[in-house]
Amino acid sequence: MVLLCGLPASAARDVRPVIARIAVENTYLLDHEQVLAALGIEAGRPLDDEELAAAVGRWNDAGLLGSLSYRVEPAPEGQVEVILSVSERVQVTEVVFRGNDRFSSSRLSELIGLEPGTSVSQADVRNYERRIAAAYHEEGFPVASVHGKLTAAEPGRRELTFYVTEGPRTYVQTIAFGGNEHVEDGELRDAMESRARRWPSWLWPGWFDEAVFRRDVRAVEAAYHERGYLDAEAEGDAAFSDDMSRAALTITIREGQLYTVAKVEFEGNTLFTDAELLAA
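RE: above sequence
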């Protein structure tokens, strides 16, 4: 005779799949470790559905770090994988800047206009990063980069830190042109915003700005078009010294054909004569 005995209720609750892996999706401001610490879950432990659902509910009810959802998928050997998906919207209590020497923290704070207590998304932070980097580029730091990160996510404190890597400051050493057979260098320089450094350097520092140089290339093209070279094209190149402190700018022009006006005719002009219209 074989006796079949049921497991005690407490033992049945202990027969739970082990969490093999926890994946966190869509995080930019938060580290994976910050999310897991806030939820109190970790891989290698049995999955408690009720506990996980309650932790996610507390996260969403607080509303301070955005919204969170999760799903559980099977893994090898009877284990499971927990996938957490974050829609970040963080209410910031502090804004901090690191690595900024050229600009003061108060100046950068004024630039982005981010006040403590503001809720920010990933898109917001990337926009702030671009604005800070652009300010550095305009001041001659062509490789400056910025990354925002939530460095503290704990009750009552959510510190958003912008890490600035300024890089070297670069000035324009020379500006040269190639292929310009019919327009003088000086005329083309007059069309540009970029200027090479001159003495005294405190008055004419000639800081390099890549965005300005791109506009300069288009301005040189426009200068040719205004002179009748309608097919003219220009390409710009910036060559940097090994230490990135100096830039040599070169604009190469393909002038193309010169177009001239052979004849101008008017039709339907009853109020003014051809000569009057031409004189106008």
